[in-house]
Amino acid sequence: MDRQIVRLAVPALGALVAEPLFVLVDSAIVGRLGTEPLAGLALASTVLVTMVGLCIFLAYATTAAVARRLGAGDTRAALQTGVDGLWLAVGLGVVLAAATWVAAPWVVGALGAGGGVAEQAVTYLRWSLPGLPGMLLVLAATGALRGLLDTRTPLVVAAAGAVANAVLNVVLVYGAGMGIAGSGLGTAVAQIGMAVALVVVVVRGARRHGAQLRPAAGGILANVRAGAPLLVRTATLRVAILVTVWVATGLGGASLAAHQVVMSVWGLTAFALDALAIAAQALVGHSLGASDVARTRALLRRTLQWGVAAGAVMGVLVGALAPAYVRLFSTDPDVQRAATAALVVAAVTLPMAGWVFVLDGVLIGAGDGRYLAWAGVLTLVAYVPAALAVHAWAPADATGLAWLWIAFAGVFMAARAVTTGWRARGTAWMVTGA
Length: 434
Known about the structure:
Oligomer: single chain
Structural class: mainly alpha
Helix content: over 70%
Shape: globular
Mean pLDDT: 87
Distance between the termini: 22 Å
Number of domains: 2
């Protein structure tokens, strides 16, 4: 069981880390064009990341459904589910790309941008939007392959895509003189290439096992029904993050800058814990599909042990080394003090975060999206008063930011731990069979 967890989690971690490199490379290349292009990129990439993040259900729901059918011994139906997920992704991607292209000036303006920054943001957004269907296809295809217990192929494709993106950006931005438009186009081409590579793998498997390739209305609707609750669950997480940023903004410039440092470190640890959650999704879906309740329980216990242990190790590293590495982010003593204080809080809560991330993966793998949607709403209801209390009474200094992270990494994550843990103790989520 440990070997299976590691075999799935390690490549999944590599693929998760490869994706953020797109934004990192774009930032490094566009940053040399000047302040306005870099600021425009920040706004445009926020819009793209938010849209893609809300569509993560294309990966999660597909992983659970494909793994369950594979566990039940019906590989053809598993691949058919994957193909239906691809059609849903491309349809959704085309609609979102077209709507965002038209609404780009309004969306950028709503974020508070104007003048040259807004112009740069709209340019990048519109040139990158042809790649949005590709981005969503990557999610759906990756979800299908994870459900087939293959996390290595997405890793290889993600790594190749990151390299291609870097090369295309340099050539188009500087060589072709396209500026920020070249960066958007380069990212779009790289994402489309990744989508083609992953879709070819899924289609080959579908043909080999006799699954049909044309769109099936019933299968696409089934993917929509499975994905809708996960969309709600993801939206509650995004709202919690936005509320946290809003409170951090009210604490002053130094606290907001420090919060960005802490959130960056927190996001890095989340990748490792997400990799374990992905392994849990695939393995739990497979065991429930095989109607093996005993193995499902064993997987639950073992993946939780992995999650808590990984969170504890990362917590020690994050907390103990915080005074040293915060200096890499800022030379401002106020930012350093605030970031260090908040990172210590985050470090203490990381074992609990490991528990939460894995349980989230287990319940997604079980197809328990409806419960996760309601749990997301409840945790948000529990968190918002705590965040508002920090906004009203916390001082605008390191202590205030520490209180904010007590609310986010403490109260919010504890609420998630309680709601998911209570569900996992019962048996309602363990629906067996295909």
